[in-house]
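Quick one: structure for this chain?
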Amino acid sequence: MRFSTLDEWLSWQESLHPVGIGLGLQRPGQVLSAMALGTPAHTVITVAGTNGKGSSVALLESILLAAGYRVGCYTSPHLLCYNERIRLNGVSVSDDLLCQSFERIDQARGQTSLTYFEFGTLAAFDIFARSELDVAVIEVGLGGRLDAANLLDADVALITAIDIDHTAWLGHDRETIAIEKGGIMRPCLPAVCSDPQPPQSLIDLAAEKGAPLLLLGSDYHYVEGLESWQWLSGKTHRDALPLPALRGSAQLQNTAGVLMVLQQLAERLPVAPQHLKQGLLSVSLPGRFQVIPGEPVTILDVAHNPQSAQVLADNLRAMPVVGKTHAVVAMLADKDLPSTLYHLKGVIDHWYPAGLDAPRGADSETMQQALPDTDRAFPTVTQALAAARSQAQPGDRIVIFGSFYTVAEALDKAV
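Got it. Here's what it folds into:
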């Protein structure tokens, strides 16, 4: 074996490919073929989109596990531990399992160069193929069409909310970005979109591909109540459903799309009403409007683009506090900082911008320039959080957002 520890493997992978992000299916596709992983025996659900991917994957996993199925999940990025990216039946895989898979990939690739992300994606496919699963839920890392997660044909494709993000790779408008996301659709196989206002380009692309595209608001609907909700599609009704355990105003939109995916798989993977309810009540996902009780209350959210910032603002308004709201924010430099922060200015009383020690992380000066009314910026999230805590009074709350890296640093400091 080339390396004996997971840390050694990951460190080597970070420098193996000339660039950190190398979109394209040819290189990882060659390795996939060499490993004979292209046609899995289990059902595959692929999830793409700008916002709501992680929540949708968590909902699918929770419901399918409640129904008794053997479920694999692949997500990225991770918060605290790389192993979080690949789960078997709700449990992160071990270092040994990852190292063994990396060795098989290394042997199969020959002289083919792979990125850090491509190594991880192929490892997920390899581990899932050896685990006798019923279903694998695969989250796209970036875009869809050229993302390594798109190497497998999805039995059902789910496309969540589409917004402007990763413009250097995906384009500068929703119509262009939707084409990249829609690349996960396949001819004659169903696709579900949970964006209530899908770009026309996505609808046109589905027609070109011959992929049946099921849309929120026309092919399926949901009706929200005070303590429960209803899901409808044609003659199929799911009544008196419990609200999902995930917090936030967008979660019913995400959950409605998930139920439509499960509806497409009902003959292959039936889910009884009691298992659906159990899955909705038990789902969890760190870093998505994650509320940590205490004094002051702390809220963690990975919101990092305008659409997700608007959702975060809506969620904060829906959960008012008697005191002030303090915000610790650190973001990647290639994000739309002004537009993202604009959506939150009406709900934040005190800002603590911070530099982010991460690839492409914005430094403290850049963050302060995006918030010109603030008096001070901090070199790190840890220092900004300490300052927010020192200023917070009883009845106040602290919100930490802007990136997975931001939330991970806060969690690492035992928020």
